[in-house]
Amino acid sequence: MARRPLIAANWKMHKTVQEAKSFVAALLPKIAAVRDRDVLICPPFPLIHAVDQARRDTPILLGAQNMYFADSGAFTGEVSGPMLKDLHCEFVILGHSERRWVFGETDELINKKVLAAITHGLIPILCVGEKIEEREQNLTEQVILNQLDLGIKNVPENVIGTMVIAYEPVWAIGTGRNASAKDAHDAIALIREFIHSRFGSGAADKLRILYGGSVKPENMATYMREEGIDGALVGGASLDPESFAKLVTY
Ligand code: PEP
């Protein structure tokens, strides 16, 4: 099954409103000819509205980098699924390694967020990936499958295929040390095989699985040549419109 590639920008905690607007204005002409793939920007919360306005009537998709699972309430500093929908977000990154390892998010919490995102019509981009010490102990497969299994717990069978999974080895994120195309391929094949064994070929064939971790214009094509890699989740190299346009037009 031909899946539509997805190239997603994770801006992390970068940019001002003006910088976000300038980015979109600079990006649009560079990707105007692109029709066969999805382009997604996930700005920090305070920039979502500005990016939404700048991308209106364009094919650029909009997402957030995190959310809380409750709809509203006494949760100081948190943002809910209904709020993101209200801002016209279509996607939400969940379980990013920085959320797991800087902010202590557990698989159980991430799963609650995944379920809440789905309830509110947001497409979760669930990130999974091993730390360097886990890789060195040959625990990569176990870690990926465990995070995946717990992260998608109770997700309805008919929804799994509409989700996005990002394989992001922690040691490759923001380090300049990208995974080899073979390692990314093998991890993504493992994820698809797990989904296939659990939910069948309909879900496994439909599910988009991205690679993330020091993706740059120079290495993007090597990933996209691999069978099963449906796109990239990009941090550092997504901050500059020139560089992100090169990733989109790999
Ligand atoms: C990320 O933030 O998801 C990421 C992969 O970052 P970078 O591309 O900078 O490694």
Automatic annotation (TrEMBL):
Family: Belongs to the triosephosphate isomerase family.
Pfam families reported for this sequence: TIM (PF00121)
Stated role: Involved in the gluconeogenesis. Catalyzes stereospecifically the conversion of dihydroxyacetone phosphate (DHAP) to D-glyceraldehyde-3-phosphate (G3P).
Protein's name in the database: Triosephosphate isomerase
Biological process terms in GO annotation: gluconeogenesis; glyceraldehyde-3-phosphate biosynthetic process; glycerol catabolic process; glycolytic process
Active site per the UniProt annotation: H96 (electrophile), E168 (proton acceptor)
Compartments where located: Cytoplasm
Chief localisation class: cytoplasm
Reactions it catalyzes: D-glyceraldehyde 3-phosphate = dihydroxyacetone phosphate
Cellular compartments per GO CC: cytosol
Coiled-coil ranges (or none): none
EC number: 5.3.1.1
Annotated gene: tpiA
